[in-house]
């Protein structure tokens, strides 16, 4: 399936130069490298935070669920902001907000509960990540159509790497600093670096702020293709964010110590990177993606179930299967945005719809795991839930994989 020529309207009559494209590509990857640390860093030391800050059960559920819910709430806003101010300017603002949110989570509140600042920082991070999630696929569609598979693979791999870094390094940071606060706040440093790097990108595209809004055209909300892609995203997101929020606690519940659990989760997410790097180029080369999408859905769901029920001596195998499947599943779900649209304008609108609904409903996965844990005292019920979710991801992945476009 051949992709249309790049839409260069946002970069001027002749589009951005090769050097500007290279710099933009690096920035896109580095943004992705900061979009998941808020999830995996918190869950990696959740028992320590709960004990030290005396977090009630409702606060734990809220802090693990709220970020994903906010991804759904703020995602539909991103296309409007991008039309008004330009995608690069909005991305710069989002990364600045993410930096502040990550820093706020680790600030002390003298004489008070840790919950308010944790919640404020988490809300800021969720809003910022929602904007970044929506804008990255549209920027790739607009400026990298000639390297769609490569760039999709690189930025989705960076997103997985972000989760791996948060999962693998936060517990050692806790041991090194002796407190959970700096081990969370230090994740603001790489986000701040990206803010600095995005400043020249935003300056080059400042003229987009005065450009007239793009014409409306047909709404993706009335497209069956858009809804199939969106529902595929829903069930992918239910598993993906549950991995970030709950895989480490699941392993701790099975008797794995904190350092080993963090390492296992980090390795699993590194394998997500492998899946996310390979899946988009493969999806772009295939005429349709039905078999690929369905296989990855079943692989991720099966890996999740086995991580809960499978023999503990083989836990590296189960979490490895989960990592490969989930990484590929996340990447192809995001790649569907580019493969099912003909223009960057529709790509950003589909991205807003798909991620708004996908993450909004997908957040129910982390919430339901928390509720099932509170009701049953264990993760067995969650294992049954993810068996069903994996099958549904495969069903809607099959539908979304058919070679059709959202009508424009």
UniProtKB/TrEMBL annotation:
Residues 20-405 form the Major facilitator superfamily (MFS) profile domain. Keywords: Membrane, Transmembrane, Transmembrane helix. GO terms for molecular function: transmembrane transporter activity. It is found in: Cell membrane. Gene3D superfamilies: MFS general substrate transporter like domains (1.20.1250.20). It is a multi-pass membrane protein. The chain crosses the membrane at residues 21-45, 57-78, 90-108, 114-136, 148-172, 184-203, 224-247, 259-279, 291-309, 315-339, 351-373, 379-398. The keyword Transmembrane applies. InterPro entries: MFS (IPR011701), MFS_Cyanate_Porter (IPR052524), MFS_dom (IPR020846), MFS_trans_sf (IPR036259). GO terms for cellular component: plasma membrane. This is MFS transporter.
């Amino acid at each position: 399936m051949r992709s249309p020529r790049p839409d260069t309207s946002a970069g001027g009559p002749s589009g951005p130069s090769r050097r500007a494209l290279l710099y933009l590509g690096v920035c896109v990857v580095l943004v992705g490298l900061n979009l998941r640390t808020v999830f995996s860093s918190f869950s990696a030391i959740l028992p320590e935070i709960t004990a030290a800050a005396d977090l009630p059960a409702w606060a734990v559920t809220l802090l693990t669920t709220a970020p994903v819910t906010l991804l759904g709430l703020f995602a539909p806003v991103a296309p409007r902001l991008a039309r008004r101010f330009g995608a690069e300017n909005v991305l710069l603002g989002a990364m600045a907000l993410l930096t502040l949110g990550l820093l706020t989570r680790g600030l002390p509140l003298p004489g008070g509960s840790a919950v308010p600042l944790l919640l404020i920082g988490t809300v800021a991070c969720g809003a910022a990540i929602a904007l970044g999630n929506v804008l990255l696929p549209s920027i790739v569609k607009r400026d990298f159509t000639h390297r769609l598979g490569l760039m999709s693979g690189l930025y989705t791999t960076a997103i997985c790497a972000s989760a791996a870094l948060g999962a693998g390094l936060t517990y050692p940071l806790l041991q090194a600093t002796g407190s959970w606060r700096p081990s969370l706040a230090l994740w603001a440093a790489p986000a701040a670096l990206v803010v600095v790097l995005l400043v020249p990108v935003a300056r080059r595209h400042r003229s987009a702020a005065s450009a007239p809004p793009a014409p409306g055209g047909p709404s993706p909300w009335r497209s069956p293709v858009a809804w199939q892609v969106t529902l595929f995203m829903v069930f992918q997101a239910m598993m993906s964010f549950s991995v970030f929020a709950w895989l480490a606690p699941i392993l701790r519940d099975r008797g794995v110590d904190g350092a080993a659990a963090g390492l296992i989760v980090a390795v699993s997410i590194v394998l997500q990177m492998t899946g996310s790097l390979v899946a988009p180029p493969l999806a772009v080369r295939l005429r349709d993606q039905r078999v690929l999408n369905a296989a990855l859905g079943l692989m991720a769901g099966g890996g999740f179930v086995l991580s809960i029920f499978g023999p503990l001596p083989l836990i590296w195998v189960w979490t490895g299967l989960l990592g490969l499947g989930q990484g590929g599943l996340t990447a192809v779900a995001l790649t569907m945005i580019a493969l099912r649209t003909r223009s960057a304008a529709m790509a950003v609108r589909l991205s807003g719809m798909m991620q708004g609904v996908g993450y909004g409903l997908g957040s129910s996965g982390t919430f339901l795991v928390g509720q099932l844990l509170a009701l049953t005292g264990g993760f067995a019920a969650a294992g049954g839930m993810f068996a069903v979710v994996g099958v549904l991801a495969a069903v809607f992945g099959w539908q979304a994989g058919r070679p059709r476009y959202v009508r424009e």
